[in-house]
Design goal:
four-stranded mixed beta sheet; single chain; alpha+beta; 136 residues; 5 helices
């Protein structure tokens, strides 16, 4: 963070795919923060990213979040994600400006991030991109 201090206000902060491999739930760090699930981890990381954006972004700067979603309808999952994140941003100096979704598949030769809900794993998955602007 010292390098960021020297740089002054930032134009953008990004957080892409904050989900974790299931084995991470057994780490000391996960125990310290009482992380019991991927959803807990994601919330903790996203809350910290929002804190950093609040501390570091210039007014008018951007926070770019990219998350996974699974559903049978791409527009429906993008809409529901937008609703959830707009609620998350209430009471902050940030506003959700754009939301888009594109089909997404995990690489076959890497670590696969899947839901504990087997039904979700059979649904099409999407990368959902959200641009959030700092207003003040």
């Amino acid at each position: 963070m010292r390098d960021a201090d020297a740089a002054g206000p930032l134009d953008a902060v990004t957080l892409w795919f904050s989900g974790v491999h299931k084995a991470r739930s057994a780490t000391e760090l996960a125990r310290h923060f009482k992380i019991k699930s991927d959803a807990d981890h994601r919330a903790l990381v996203e809350d910290r990213a929002l804190d950093i954006a609040g501390e570091r972004l210039r007014v008018g700067g951007w926070l770019h979040l990219l998350v996974r979603g699974a559903a049978n309808n791409m527009e429906a999952v993008a809409h529901e994600t937008a609703r959830t994140y707009a609620e998350w941003l209430q009471g902050t100096p940030f506003a959700l400006e754009t939301v888009g979704a594109i089909p997404y598949a995990e690489r076959e030769d890497g670590i696969r991030v899947q839901s504990p809900d087997a039904r979700v794993n059979t649904m099409p998955s999407y990368a959902i991109s959200m641009l959030v602007r700092r207003s003040g």
